TrEMBL record:
Keywords: ATP-binding, Ligase, Nucleotide-binding. The keyword Ligase applies. InterPro entries: ATP-grasp, DcsG_Biosynth_Enzyme. GO terms for molecular function: ligase activity. It comes from Prauserella oleivorans. SUPFAM superfamilies: Glutathione synthetase ATP-binding domain-like. The keyword Nucleotide-binding applies. This is RimK family alpha-L-glutamate ligase. Residues 93-290 form the ATP-grasp domain.
Length: 290
């Protein structure tokens, strides 16, 4: 009997951005029929699927409560609801820091508060956000412009993250390490996204320039430690996470640090991976079904 999987998108990207096409084909090859559904479409019946996989729900930041209520109602959701609830607010970074994971230094700036601005370049971004939308980079001393951006976030009752900008991102970008079922699969690079890059046509994310890479041992070790810490914090096994993407950057001190951990709806870089990556994903899905 053919298993049934649903990939979940949003109204502006009902079938994602094309990156998951290889995964759909790989699943079909091993007996898993996949279709796409829009998460907030009341006509959709996702309860009948054998597994429901969040893939392109990129409109949730301004509707997080509604999105989480929907996720809580879905049986056989992947990743699990507890992981989605935790991961859709970037304050999770502080949980990982407390667990010993080196992160890009991060401060939360709640509505009604004003931070002490860093001396060098820095970044402000919404704590609930996706695709770098609402993130902005500021030069040293640009405190007035930063305060204006912060007010625009706070006026919408959004908590902000304040982080010092890591200069190596300009030349190296970010390294995204991808895991399926708790096992490392592949990595890819993402170019700087705060230097004038425009929004995708959907308006949901900043267009990325991607490339292939083989991460160093230190980057791999940090990604592994991050996944272990996240699973422990959530009371899960690593294998309970069907997919995870660990975004790492080089700090000004030359060491790797976690920028973000994505276990909700990350692009998984199949277009930059070897052909077997989609097969590894499909096998991880079969593991969930088993």
């Amino acid at each position: 009997m053919t298993a049934r999987a649903i990939f979940v998108g949003c109204a502006h990207r009902p079938e994602g951005n094309g990156d998951d096409d290889a995964a759909v084909r790989a699943l079909a090859d091993i007996g898993v029929a996949t279709r796409w559904a829009v998460w907030d479409d009341p006509a959709e019946d996702v309860a009948s699927a054998d597994v429901v996989i969040l893939r392109a729900t990129w409109d949730y930041p301004l509707r997080r409560d509604e999105f989480l209520a929907w996720c809580a109602s879905v049986p056989r959701l992947r990743n699990p609801f507890a992981a989605v609830r935790w991961n859709t607010d970037k304050s999770y970074l502080l949980d990982l820091e407390r667990a010993g994971v080196p992160i890009v230094p991060t401060r939360l700036v709640h509505p009604g508060t004003v931070p002490e601005w860093p001396e060098g370049e820095f970044v402000l971004k919404p704590a609930v956000g996706a695709g770098s939308v609402g993130a902005a980079r500021f030069a040293a001393g640009e405190h007035e412009r930063a305060a204006e951006h912060l007010r625009s976030l706070h006026d919408r009752r959004r908590t902000a993250l304040l982080q010092p900008y890591q200069a190596a991102v300009d030349s190296e970008g970010e390294t995204a390490l991808v895991f399926f079922g708790g096992q490392y699969s592949h990595a890819f690079t993402k170019g700087p996204m705060l230097t004038g890059a425009g929004l995708d046509g959907s308006g949901l994310y900043v267009a990325e320039k991607r490339g292939t890479t083989t991460p160093s041992v230190a980057w791999r070790a940090l990604a592994e430690d991050t996944l272990d810490a996240a699973a422990a914090h959530l009371g899960l096994r690593r294998g309970d996470l069907l997919y995870a993407r660990v975004d790492v950057v080089r700090t000004d001190a030359g060491t790797p640090a976690l920028l973000e951990l994505e276990v909700t709806e990350p692009s998984l870089g199949f277009g930059q991976a070897d052909e077997a990556a989609a097969l590894r994903f499909a096998s991880a899905v079969r593991g969930v079904l088993a």
